[in-house]
Structures are given as C-alpha cells and as structure tokens.
Specification:
Elements lengths: L3 H15 L3 H14 L3 H14 L3 H14 L4 H11 L36 E3 L5 E4 L5 E3 L10 E2 H4 L10 E7 L6 E3 L21 E6 L4 E2 L6 H14 L12 E24 L13 E10 L2 E7 L6 H6 L9 E2 L9 E2 L6 H23 L4 E6 L3 E20 L2 E8 L5 E3 L3 H5 L16
Parallel strand pairs: 8-15, 9-13
Antiparallel strand pairs: 1-2, 2-3, 4-15, 5-6, 5-7, 8-12, 9-10, 9-11, 9-14, 9-15, 15-16, 16-17
Helix pairs in contact: 1-2, 1-3, 2-3, 3-4, 4-5
Length: about 450
C-alpha cells in the first residue's frame, strides 16, 4: 500500500499539535491508525497521541502502543520513564545547549570512622562488614536480598549523566605502568595495585567520574588469594625464578549492556515450483525473502579501560554478574579502585558494534540458504546498562628475566595468568611454596 497519504496525515497531525490544536491532531492520528501499515509511522503517531492525552492512564496506553510498534522509540521510552518516575523531566538535557557540568563533590573522609576508638574502618574481604583498623570493632553492611539493577539506557542518554561525568574525583597516575586509580580523600600517595610501585603519584589531577551502579564485593583476604596463587603455580608445575610479592587487591571497572529488538534482513533464495529449497531443480526461481531476526543479549561485557591484559580479559568470563550488589561507597573503604577511561557513550557504541557483528555471523550461519543478504541494526537497541566494579587480585612473578602477570577473581578465586613459553610446553619440578612466595602465612 502506498503510504504517501498516511505520511501526509501524520504531517498534518504534527502541524496541528505544534499549533496547539489537539482536537484536529487527534482526528488526523485516528485516521492514520486505521489506514497505515508502516510500523515506524504508527510508532511516531502513538507517541504524538500520548502528547495529546491528558490522563496518565491514557498517556501510558499510547506510549505502550508506540513501543509495541518500535521498542527502540527513544522519545516514547523517555516519556514512559518520566511517567513512571524513573526520570525527572528537568534532568533531560537540551541538545542545542551546552550542558553545565556539576561542581566538585568532596568525599567525607570521616564518615567511615570507628565509633569505638575513632580510627579508620576498612571494608573486610568477607563481603559483609566494615572493620576498624585499630581495635577490630566491626559493623555489618546490610545488603541482604539486594541485587543490583541495570539502568535504563534510553533514559540515561537523555540526561547529563549519559554525556558527561558529573562527580569530580582526584586520581593518581602510576609512573611505573601507566594505570590510574581513584585517590581516597586526604591521601597524597599510594601504591599501584598493578605493579606495586610506591612512587605512583607522578601527577595528581581531577577527573569527572560517574559513580558505579553496582559492585561485586571482595569475598576473601590476601592470605586466601595467595593460596589460590600457590595452587595455580602447582597446577602448572613450575617455580618462579625469584621472590613473588603477595597479590594486591583492588576493584576493576567494567561496563555491561543488555540488548533487545530485532535485526531486519533481506536476501534472495532459490525456490522450485513446489516451494522446496532446491538449487538443482530445473524449475527453480529466485525469490526475495525479508524479515526480522530477534536480538537478546544479557550482560555483554566491555572493559572500561582502553588497555587490558589478555589474561585479565579472560578472567572476566569467570564472574557471576547476577550476584552484583547495588553500589555502596563503604565497599571501597580500604581498597584501591581503578578509574575508568571509556565513557558511557563511547562504550555503548563499541558494545553495539560488537553485538551487531556477532549477530550477523549467527544469521549467516542460520540462514545460509540466503544469497546477497543485507541487514540493518536500526531496530536493535541497548535496553539497559551498568557500570560494575569487580574484585580482583593481581601480582607478577619473575621468570627468565621477564615479569609475568597473574590475575585472581576476588569473588570465587578463579585464576588466569601468563605462562612462559617453555613452562607451557613442559612441566617443571615445583620447589615448594615458601621457596618463591614472600612471607605472608
């Protein structure tokens, strides 16, 4: 059906709505709903109908109708988020105006002081409590039954949070390995969690950083991390050629994205007179096929930093992301936290590209009978996201004049590490634990 008439109806409704004539706009839209079969046009039409309706219930119905035709309709999703109270209308930024960045947010250095003796409290690696560094008094962090929820991507990208980083935080730069970490309040020096360099504050600067959305707390202490390291060395049957520093614990930032929607496709296939796919049939003919391929991805992982060791990347697959807790600043007390480099907007583009390429390969396998297949990701969308802090331990060991990294999952003890080529090829006799690991037990 020619949709020219329907596009004219929509245009007239748009003009009437801008002129404030809601009654006339409604008439045009009602005609559009009866005659159009264009899902994009219908989605836009129902979004405009939501602007006409006065009652919240009718607005909701119209917005849900718009999303039933196109789930990636950004304006409809944002309007529904405002209606649900998940987004405030005054938080939505004007794309034609330069946003004003938030000012410095100062950390209260005294908020985690021991109520018994006044000393600093640190988060214990049991996933449950704060413990005083001096008198060992403790208090539980109540997170029972609380699981982290993803943030709505469409709503976020309409606000300043999606395009800038509103909280000013001090970070330090390691002159040894180049890593950057958040500098705790009142601290003027730190040791690098990656390489252990004690002179890491080569320059101090302020960066605008988002607060994390979720965190998986550290579940064990340094002694237990060393035990996992020892077991990994024994499993690989080699001995480090020199002393090894005990593992250093910190939090690693990553982005996770959930995807939905469809990928539209079209292509040609062979078909004989009996509608059987048979390229050998003499009566075969070429027909065009098109449709939508459903997309669903839960927790596509994207590193929040531009450079990450391959072993660290492999370790990401070992985390149980569903066990993440809502972010609480108390979890970071006493732990280093790496600052992220990749902003939300850039991360979403990379995640979308990775998801689209992965689905294209899958579609080519599933529909190998199609020739000249063309695809479109216009209706594939990110539904939600979160900035997640992962617990991790790291150390290096010497071998053959080189340093090799080992990474330990702070949630469950899984280990991924670099192995020298000769160690990977042949087993070597283990000289025992205390022969190579610095005293910790």
């Amino acid at each position: 059906m020619d949709e020219t008439y329907n596009r004219n109806l929509f245009k007239n409704a748009e003009i009437a709505l801008k002129d404030g004539d809601k009654k006339m706009a409604r008439r045009y839209l009602e005609r559009l709903f009866l005659s159009s079969r264009d899902y994009d046009l219908l989605a836009d039409g129902w979004y405009y109908m939501s602007q006409i309706e006065d009652s919240p219930a009718e607005k909701r119905k119209a917005l849900e109708q718009a999303l039933s035709y196109r789930m990636t309709h950004a304006r409809a999703r944002r309007a529904l988020a405002v209606l649900d109270g998940r987004l405030k209308a005054d938080e939505i930024i004007n794309p034609d105006e330069k946003p004003v960045l938030a000012g410095d947010s100062k950390t209260d250095a005294d908020r985690f002081m021991c109520p018994n003796c006044g000393a600093r409290m640190s988060f214990a690696p049991d996933g449950q409590s704060l413990v005083c560094d001096f008198c060992s008094s403790g208090g539980a962090v109540d997170t029972t039954g609380n699981l982290a929820e993803e943030k709505d991507f469409f709503s976020t990208m309409a606000t300043l949070r999606g395009h800038s980083t509103p909280n000013a935080q001090k970070i330090f730069h390691c002159s040894g390995c180049g890593a950057e970490f958040i500098l705790p309040a009142n601290d003027i020096s730190e040791n690098c969690a990656y390489c252990g360099s004690p002179y890491v504050v080569s320059h101090e600067k302020t960066r605008e950083l988002l607060d994390p959305d979720a965190i998986i707390p550290h579940a064990f202490n340094q002694r237990q991390a060393a035990q996992y390291l020892v077991a990994w060395v024994q499993k690989n049957a080699f001995t480090p050629q020199g002393k090894v520093d005990p593992p250093r614990g910190f939090y690693l930032p990553i982005w996770t994205f959930d995807f939905g929607g469809v990928i539209s496709y079209s292509g040609q296939r062979y078909e004989d007179d009996d509608n059987i796919f048979n390229q050998r049939s003499r009566n075969r003919k070429v027909v065009t096929e098109s449709g939508d391929y459903p997309v669903y991805i839960d927790d596509l992982i994207l590193p929040a930093n531009k450079k990450m060791n391959q072993e660290a990347l492999a370790l990401l697959e070992t985390y149980a992301f569903r066990e993440a807790k809502p972010y609480d600043a108390r979890y970071l007390v006493g732990w280093a936290a790496e600052a992220y480099e990749v902003e939300l907007g850039d991360a979403s583009l990379k995640a979308r590209d990775r998801a689209y390429k992965g689905y294209k390969k899958k579609m080519q396998r599933d529909m190998s009978y199609l020739m000249n297949m063309h695809t479109s990701s216009a209706n594939m969308a990110i539904d939600s996201y979160k900035l997640l802090m992962l617990p991790i331990w790291v150390t290096t060991y010497p071998y053959g004049g080189e340093e090799y990294h080992v990474f330990i999952n702070g949630q469950n003890g899984a280990v991924r590490g670099e192995l020298p080529k000769e160690v990977a090829k042949a087993n070597k006799k283990n000289a025992g634990i205390m022969g190579w690991l610095d005293e910790i037990f």
